[in-house]
Amino acid sequence: MCSEEERALYAEQGFLVVDGIYSKETMDECCREYDAMFARAKERGDKIEATWKGDWKTEKEKAGKMEMLSIHNIQFHSATFTQMMLNPKLSDVIADLMGTNDIELHHTKAHIKPPHHGSRFPMHQDYQYFPHAKDSMIAVFIHLEDVDIKNGCLAVYPGSHKLGYLKDFGSQGYHYVDPNEYTIEKASPVKAKRGQVVIFPYTLVHGSYINTSDVPRRMILFQIRAADDYPTREIHISPGQGLMLRGTKKNVDANIDLRHLHGKEAVEPEPKKLKT
Ligand SMILES: O=C(O)CCC(=O)C(=O)O
Description:
The chain is an alpha+beta fold. The protein has 5 helices and 11 strands. The chain has a single domain, classed as q2cbj1_9rhob like domain (Jelly Rolls, Sandwich). Helices cover 20% and strands 20% of the residues. It binds 2-oxoglutaric acid.
């Protein structure tokens, strides 16, 4: 549950830093599973470099090296992430901020910003990536280490969630707001401690700083919506979407013919071999 003060702060500034959701033991396990997941992906040679494309980089950024490693749908890699998603303390806070007891998963992801040249994220509204009719969508951003400007923490424009949908200046499948108007220099850093969670709605203008420190910056993110919300454009469908995290969903079609996602006979995929 949130206090009245926290609810008012969230409504006013458009984000809330929440403490006390995850224990030290959970964060230790999370870090172990996280590092092992990325190590396996690297060993297999999976494509995980994911710095955003588009015309938002400064000349210095274009000239230098930038790197950001990303894995989506992390609940398919380790049950630890599923358990973190289902944490009742987390869903208490979300239900409180969202104003509904019925909440479901949209998607999950993990980003590593490597040391020295970990990519910046341009200022954007997540709304552009997955517009929904009731705008209930929120991000749950979990920090795997203490963060500040030096190692690439979140940068936000407090109150910008009240501006509604801003013009999209993105290209090449990426979305961001006017890079000249919404500069990172004018944004406010959101410093956080390991295990702290930052929750914000998908209309908040946010990005994050370059990681110039000597250590990687790791995070995981759960994107969550109210169970009665729905996309206005089906441009972001992820495996596991719609998993109920709390409460009930009443309008799910139980038709037996819809029980499988595929119409063809399933073919067992050849698993990629790990080096032993
Ligand atoms: O990883 C980060 O620093 C920012 C991620 C983000 O804003 C996003 O994926 O929308």
